[in-house]
Amino acid sequence: MKINTAEFIISNSEVDKCPKEPIPEYAFIGRSNVGKSSLINMLTNHKNLAKTSGRPGKTQLINHFKINNNWFLVDLPGYGYAKVSKKTKSVFQQFITDYFETRQQLVCAFVLIDIRHEAQNIDIEFMSYMGESEIPFCIIFTKADKISKTKIDSHIAAYTKQMYANNWEEMPQYFVTSATDGLGKESVLEYIGAINDDLFKNNLL
What we know:
The protein is of the alpha/beta class. It has a single domain (about 5-200), classed as 3-Layer(aba) Sandwich (Rossmann fold). Helix content is about 35%, strand content about 20%. The chain is built from 5 helices and 7 strands, in the order ββαββαβαβαβα. It has helices at about 35-45, 85-100, 120-130, 150-165, 185-200; strands spanning about 5-10, 25-30, 60-65, 70-75, 105-115, 135-140, 175. The chain has a 7-stranded mixed sheet with strand order 1-3-4-2-5-6-7, with helices on both faces. The longest helix is centred in the middle third of the chain and has 17 residues, at about 85-100. The protein starts with 5 loop residues before the first strand and ends with a helix. About 30% of the residues are buried.
């Protein structure tokens, strides 16, 4: 799939105010400073579609971007950033939970994980929540250009072991990416494109 157009539509903190159009949505979420904005910009061929920042926790709203006029890319706040106040974090968690559990247009979420680090409990816990809530998701490992292929394989193996230890029957679909050199871009977009083709062909939305 090729992205021809990418347009910012709306930011808000209430799921009821999200766009009403019955088109597929793909949500991107991960720990703060995981490289989410850079990845979104890489996937959409835009340098500044999603605002990047050296300050973790900058995304604090549900951000909708319309792609090719027929699906939404949704940029969600990061989780697990210690310098966000407990009150602010609880608000984040509430509308993130509301979004995942009530948004009918959501087709799949992409949970972003920094491949440079070994398996983190906060990521495992978040994915466990997604599984228990029966929310479809894939994993996107980011920043693959920062470490060797051997370490990438080792860290993915560690995550796989952790997932099995948490009663997962199999490792979720995953992609290894780099916003710097474009690694994984084609695979992620082909995955989304294949789902969209099936949805539109079978009038499932």
